[in-house]
Amino acid sequence: MPGFEVFGAEERKQVNDVLETGVLMRYGFDGMRNNHWKAKEFEEAFAARMQSNHCQLVSSGTSALTVALASAGVGAGDEVIMPTFTFVASFESIMMLGAVPVLVDIDDTLTLDPKAVEAAITAKTKCVMPVHMCGSMADLKALKAICDKHNLVLLEDACQAIGGTFEGKPLGSYGDLGCFSFDYVKTITCGEGGGVITNNKQYAINADQYQDHGHDHIGNDRGAETHPHLGYNFRISELNAAVGIAQLGKMDEILDLQKRNYTIVREALSLVDGVTFRRVPEGGIENYSFVNFYLPTQELAEKAHKALGGAGVEACFYWFKNNWHYINGWEHLRNLKSMQPLSTEIKEQMQDLNSKDFSKSDAWMGRTISALVKIGLTKNEVEERAQMIAKTVASVLS
Ligand SMILES: *Cc1c(COP(=O)(O)O)cnc(C)c1O
């Protein structure tokens, strides 16, 4: 997955353009910047690549989620439906706005179960946030039908699945808004950065203003701009945006390599009796950043994961017991351990996550192992890695 594996001369050239002028900010200083507008340039190229009308670049994937939610009017007391398997940024971005995360089960796609989503809708629900984990997507068709029926915002977190598609559309462009992360370990990186895409003009204007203190960005005098609404600072720097331009230029090559390397690992694992694979919803094409597979039981998955570590196979993840990606590891969320007082709405409306039954999610997550698809390896090295993974898993199953 990581774009840092292909960091090189192109990224250095882009950053040097900025360093030569010293204009590290994306706005203003027109006379000094030698016509370099890296953030703007990235936004235009990214919107085009994602077949979307608008892109707003921001400082991280987490801020992209926050800005997207705020732009769609999600705030205090509004409920946002999100999956039990995701990155902590999902609930962080929701709670940052005083909104309430509602966690629901995943299914064999390892993403939101549409039936569980529908069952969780209340009068306060405003948004459904599917998270396309580990390279593959939620059933967007089913989720869109639910959102249309109940008049909800569909916000795709595509941070881990950039380049995948659903019904021919780039992931992130199918819903009302899509979010991406360009942090250091993502498919393409800015060092730190994130992006929001949308075809909704009002959301785009809102995102542009919200990420920069509410500035209206009208005219050439930053000091004279007015503030139609309250905002915040989620801006990206020109240096980070510059790195992103070079990485975006390499994205299709990265995706091709991911697919090649994924296929080698997947084919080796397909020959192992007892191994099955995560379901990809009909109409979806993965970005191939992980090979996600199931073992017959949780016990065998734990054993296989340990054996892979013991055999020195790197970057095979067992999310069920990891601190970042599954509700099991979120003791701080379950017990609302906040440094500062939380909003009344959050305190009153939050589910009791310690007693809530997520056994359906447990049943899939307990059996899941994800092997990261690396792009910096040669074909031979990937073949060796594939054989090691298959051999080790087979030894546990025999
Ligand atoms: C990485 C990631 C984020 C957050 O992105 P940052 O840029 O690290 O803030 C959000 N959601 C998912 C699914 C991610 O993988």
Automatic annotation (TrEMBL):
Enzyme Commission (EC) number: 2.6.1.-
Q: Which GO terms describe its molecular function?
A: transaminase activity
InterPro entries for this protein: DegT/StrS_aminotransferase (IPR000653), PyrdxlP-dep_Trfase (IPR015424), PyrdxlP-dep_Trfase_major (IPR015421), PyrdxlP-dep_Trfase_small (IPR015422)
Which UniProt keyword terms apply here?
Aminotransferase, Pyridoxal phosphate, Transferase
Highest taxon, organism lineage = Bacteria
A Pfam family cross-referenced in the UniProt record is DegT_DnrJ_EryC1
Q: Does the keyword Nucleotidyltransferase apply?
A: no
Tell me which PANTHER family the record gives. Answer: DTDP-4-AMINO-4,6-DIDEOXYGALACTOSE TRANSAMINASE, TRANSAMINASE
Name assigned to this protein = DegT/DnrJ/EryC1/StrS family aminotransferase
Taxonomic classification: Bacteria, Pseudomonadati, Bacteroidota, Flavobacteriia, Flavobacteriales
